[in-house]
Amino acid sequence: MAGPQSFTPRPVRPSRPKRRFTLAQANSALPLVRRIVGDIVRTHGMVLKLQSDIERAANAKDQAAVQTRLDESVTRLEDYVDELSEVGCELKDYQVGLIDFVGRHESRDVYLCWKLGEERVGYWHEISAGYAGRQPIETLHEKP
Asked: Most buried one in 72, 93, 120, 127, CB count within 10 A?
């Protein structure tokens, strides 16, 4: 029997051209995004637990049973990620549920940034800046 498979999140690849969101559109998408991201975070946690369980399995039979559950959980996680990419936003972190929506500011793309637990999209950052470069949304002056 092969050893346990380690889950490495695959890159999120939108299945359609990059969608650009206004701040209002991003906030309108949050009820659906919040549900999907909650499922992603929970399922990712289960995948990590099952990976640990495989390592502690007492014998090959127990290991095989856990591997089956792990495979099912990974498939479910990939389905949730695909569902999220259909919305048009980008998943940046499986554990905390960090999401970026592509927006526009002064004729360039920027990210409108949200993470699970936040009420609304309250931050933005330059594409190259990442999470550490988050700034309050009030500093972003959207052009109509």
From this structure: 93
Burial class for 97, CB neighbours closer than 10 Å (0-12, 13-18, 19+) = buried
Residues of the chain with pLDDT under 50: 1-5, 14-16, 143-144
Q: Which pairs from 141-144 meet CB under 8 Å and 24+ separation?
A: 141/105, 142/22, 142/23, 142/103, 142/104, 142/105, 143/104, 143/105, 143/106
Q: What pLDDT, on a 0 to 100 scale, did the predictor assign at position 49?
A: 96
Name the 3-class secondary structure at 9: coil
CA gap 52, 105 in Å, rounded: 44
* Cα–Cα distance, 65 to 83 (Å, whole number): 28
What's residue 140's pLDDT? 81
Spatial separation of the C-alpha atoms in residues 118 and 34, rounded to whole Å: 9
CB 96 within 8 A of CB 38: no
**Radius of gyration (Cα) for the chain, nearest Å?**
18
User: Residue 42, Cβ neighbours under 10 Å: how many?
Assistant: 14
85 and 13 Cβ atoms separated by less than 8 Å: yes
